[in-house]
Amino acid sequence: MAANKKRRKPLLLSHTRPPTTTKTASLSSQATRSLIRRHHTLRKQIHTAILNGDSASAGKLQAELEASGGLQKYQEASIQGQSSERGGDSSKVLIEWLNELLSQHGRHHIAGSGRLRMLEVGALKVDNACSRSGIFNVTRIDLHSQHPDIQAQDFMQKPVPSSDTLRDEGFDVVSLSLVVNYVGDAFVRGEMLKRVSNFLRSSKLTTKDEARSTFPALFLVLPASCVTNSRYMDEERLEGIMISLGYVKTRRKIGKKLVYYLWRHEGNGAGKTQNVSYKKQEIRPGGKRNNFSIILQW
Predict the structure, then answer these.
(1) Spatial CB neighbours of 92, under 8 Å, sequence gap ≥ 6
(2) Does the pLDDT value for residue 202 go beyond 50?
(3) Phi, psi (5° rounding) for residue 77?
(4) pLDDT average, residue stretch 210-229
(5) SS3 for 4?
(6) pTM surpassing 0.85?
(7) Mean predicted confidence (pLDDT) in 80-90
(8) Where are the alpha helices (DSSP H) in the chain?
(9) Is 35 helix (H, G, I), strand (E, B) or coil?
(10) Which one of 16, 52, 227, 254 has the fewest beta carbons within 10 angstroms of its own beta carbon?
(11) How many alpha carbons fall within 13 Å on the CB side of residue 11?
């Protein structure tokens, strides 16, 4: 499945997401769902117009997106509608899994050795389950912060720790909850997933086998339709991409709206299944499929 196309320079996430506008009043649950759906539809149409070189259509669609509230309105709708559109606080699933993977003694050991470090990309709130768990010290980033405890930062521009500082500045868990699907470019999605490992450190809890078998890890949440109803992606292909990146799946949960994964990173460059490229390839034909895909290029 090697990709032979010329390697592209990854875009910044800020180039794949629309600008924010001014804050508006709260929305009803029905209006929230409609706004979120319309926002994603417009972004897909803008991306298609740009790829087709149709700047006039892209400009009109961008104007419509901004008139509807832009990214800030989308963020407000996501916060207000988490229980329905975002499936609730997705980090609850991660905490449930860690309670299964780590014994009570292990959790006490973590607390006594210093909390685990977590990087939450695309953070909207500061009081989710991970923040309240007592397990993590959480670093939160988003392109357009809505809270003083969330850093305004593009993940694709975030400085990568050096080999000398990774042990102290790296993270035990990186969370990408409904982030990868928001990126409009399939190639940039692959580059984002590749970049995660640069921030993951080997577990400092080397005396605990259960910690070593869990961390470092990526917590990945996607709309279920990305793997259940896409022309170009299913769970088998997603797992192949993650294996190519050096990950092993430790937990999975699929629901009506969302699919959750916990992937342990075992390192890059080992084995024939790593560093394998994945191009956009139809694997599930059909007229009512979505076009979600991830391009992985080495």
Answers:
(1) 128, 129
(2) yes
(3) -65, -40
(4) 91
(5) coil
(6) no
(7) 56
(8) 29-51, 55-67, 70-80, 91-101, 104-113, 129-132, 166-169, 186-196, 209-212, 225-228, 235-244
(9) helix
(10) 52
(11) 13
